[in-house]
Structures are given as structure tokens and as C-alpha cells.
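User: Please run a holo structure prediction.
Assistant: Happy to. Please share the sequence and the ligand.
User: Here you go; the ligand is flavin-adenine dinucleotide.
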Amino acid sequence: MNIDIVGGGPSGLYLSLLLRRRRPGWRLRVFEQNPRGATFGFGVVLADSGLHRLREADAPTHDRLVAAMRFADRQRIVHRESPIEVLAPRPAGAITRIDLLEILTAAALERGVEIHHRQRITQDDVERSLREADLVVGADGVHSIVRQCDEAGFGTTKSSLGNRFAWYGTTKVFPSPALVFRPQGTGSFVAHYYPYSDGMSTFVAECDARTWEEGGFGALDDAERQARMEALFAPELEGHALISNNSSWKPFQVLRNARMHAGRKVLIGDAHASAHPTIGSGTRIAIEDAISLADALIASPDVDEALAVHERTRGPEKAKLIGASERSYLWYEDFGRRMAALDPHEFVYSYMTRTGRIDDERLAAQFPELMKVIGERRRAAATP
Ligand SMILES: Cc1cc2nc3c(=O)[nH]c(=O)nc-3n(C[C@H](O)[C@H](O)[C@H](O)COP(=O)(O)OP(=O)(O)OC[C@H]3O[C@@H](n4cnc5c(N)ncnc54)[C@H](O)[C@@H]3O)c2cc1C
């Protein structure tokens, strides 16, 4: 079997190393436009549920990843300058994106995967691959070239959200992850930060559409916006600067495909459906796509049958996660209005229940203090 994988991000690398481990005779080529060791962003979070799947799929790689992670079991949510601490049901691990990719790259190379860095694949290259390989995998992110070869076949739809965000790093190592919602003038901002190594934290700053358009934030350049965020979140940054890595303010691209495969092309990870950063699961979803596709290909030597099985099993499971992502971004699109309307406890309750995956009962078990206050409010409101 010959498989060409476009994109050496988490999903493409993970697929290649899983397949080579279980089918050492297969020819697997990964094409990545960036040089080894270069990437966007800083640290990413991998939820414990995702780690569990990784351990089952490939214990040695899981162990290497866990050794490079920094774990946190709580997060602070700050609204109207009142911090409320929320315990996570299970600790979440954060890892430098470069370390994540380097661990996966090293594991793939050790197993005999061919990785071609600095090779940007074009539509002609995809057509050539289709003539030579049994399967072409689009693991090439939201701007996937494999998808662009057949958007009608995949059933592609695209749209942009109204909020804007930028992904920074900082040398301030925060004691725990936090979300800080803070108004400035008529604008509404939120910073989401989490430590991911002994010397660095990720710092994602976001504003709503009103702040961008009417509040004048969109009229500034990226350097001015960075300076504004450093000033607004100075109490948290405590003198540390924000570090940019091409950190421009962009709207989130909502990318969907009705089908995971079209002919002998298949999309995994963000190339198939983009997950909003606020559920902290894009990497996990991308890696789980790779696990499902690898399982299907190992189980069936017939590529068409394997793709059909992958679509049937992974499709509904992924749809649930993408549904949670959608409910999360809809909440964020309106966060300025919620900041104005809700007090800190109501705000945190609204935030915690935004995806519909946590109900009152689970929240009461996880966070009794919050539910005690919410319960008292509800009783008072119901009393005539
Ligand atoms: C601000 C922000 C914060 C985030 N935080 C988290 C988080 O905390 N936790 C989490 O799990 N996820 C997070 N994500 C999401 C996560 O980064 C993605 O969901 C994940 O990287 C998807 O993996 P992937 O392999 O599908 O695609 P990508 O990581 O996008 O990898 C695609 C690869 O393909 C390469 N490529 C693209 N086109 C070509 C081409 N034509 N030829 C060759 N190579 C090509 C790219 O260079 C890239 O290396 C965040 C995203 C953002 C924007």
C-alpha cells in the first residue's frame, strides 16, 4: 500500500506513525511545507480524554508526550474582577506545539516514514499523487489543498465568525490556566492563558465584533493591538511582554465538509472540520481522526471499504465534538453582551454550560459552591 499524506501537523504525523508501526511494509510519505522545527502558535492543551485514546493507540508515543507536558487541574474565570476557580474533572496537559510536532516527527522517522519538509504541495502534485498512490490524505489544515482539489466532492462550506483573536506567547509562567474577561471603554476583551512549560505560557486574546468594528480596535495595526493587550492585561502579565509569532488578529474560519472522503482522497483534522480554540480540543480531534482512519485501513485492505468504515464510525463521533465547538463559539460571539448582563456567578454558570455537555447535576458535583449560589438565586427569583 502506498499512502501520501499532505501536511506534517499533528494529524498527518500521527496517522503515519500509527500505520508504519502496524504495517511496516507500507510506503508512507508525509509532505510538509515548513522546515522541521518551525510552526505557528505556542502551547496547546490536550484534554485527558484525548490522552487516554493516545495511550491505547500507541503507548510509547503517549509516554513521550506526557513527559513533555505540564498539567493543571483547575482554571480561574475572572469577570468584573472577581476570580472564580473551577476544578477540572480530570487534569488537562499543555505542551509546546513545537515539542508535540518534534516528538511525533521523531517517532514517525524512527519507524521508517518518509517525511519531506519544505515541500509545499500544489493541486498538480495532488493529481500526481493520485496516479501513484493508493490513497491521498489531506491532513493539511483549514486551508487544505487536497480539499481544494474537489470541494464539490467533499461538500465544502466555509464562513468566518465576527470575533477576532490573536495567539501570543509570554514568558510569564501563570500559576494555572485562566480566562479573564475585561471591558475597556466600550470594548469587550477576553484573555485565555495557560502555562505550557517552565518558561512560557500561551496567551490568546479575543474581542467581539462590536469592539472590532465600532470600538475602533480594527483600525489599529497589529503592534498597536499587542500594546493595548499588554496594557489591559498588565495586572496578570506583571511586567512580562506578549511575544508575537506572526500573531495577527483574525476571525475564526468555520470550515465544514459534508463528506470525509471523495474518491481516494480523505480529509482528517482541521482540513475536514475546524474546531474552535475555546474547546481546547482541535489537536485531540485531529489525532482521533488519524486513529480512526488508521484502524479502518488496518482492518480492511480495500481502500474504498476502509474509507466507508472510517466515515461511518468517525463521522457521528466527530459531529458531536464539532457541535460542542459550535455552541462554544456562539457563546463567545455574544460574550460582550453577557459581560454586561450577568454577575460573576451567573456568568461562570453560563460559560460552564455553554456547550450543553455539562448539566446542573454534573456541575453541582464538580463545583458545589457555584451551584449553591445559583440555586439560592433561582429560589429567590421564584419567591413571589
Ligand atoms: C489560537 C488557537 C489556539 C488553539 N489552542 C488549541 C488547544 O489548546 N488545544 C488544541 O487541541 N487545539 C488548539 N487549537 C487547534 C489546533 O491548533 C488545531 O485544531 C490542530 O493543529 C489541527 O491539526 P491538523 O493536523 O489537522 O492541522 P494543522 O495543525 O493545521 O497542520 C497542518 C499542516 O499542514 C501543513 N500544510 C498546509 N498546507 C500544505 C501544503 N499545501 N503542502 C504541504 N504542507 C501543507 C501546514 O504547514 C501544517 O503543518 C488552537 C488553534 C488556534 C488557532
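Residues 6-12, 31-34, 41, 44-45, 120-121, 139-141, 145, 167, 204, 269-271, 275, 277, 280-284, 286 surround flavin-adenine dinucleotide (CB under 6 Å).
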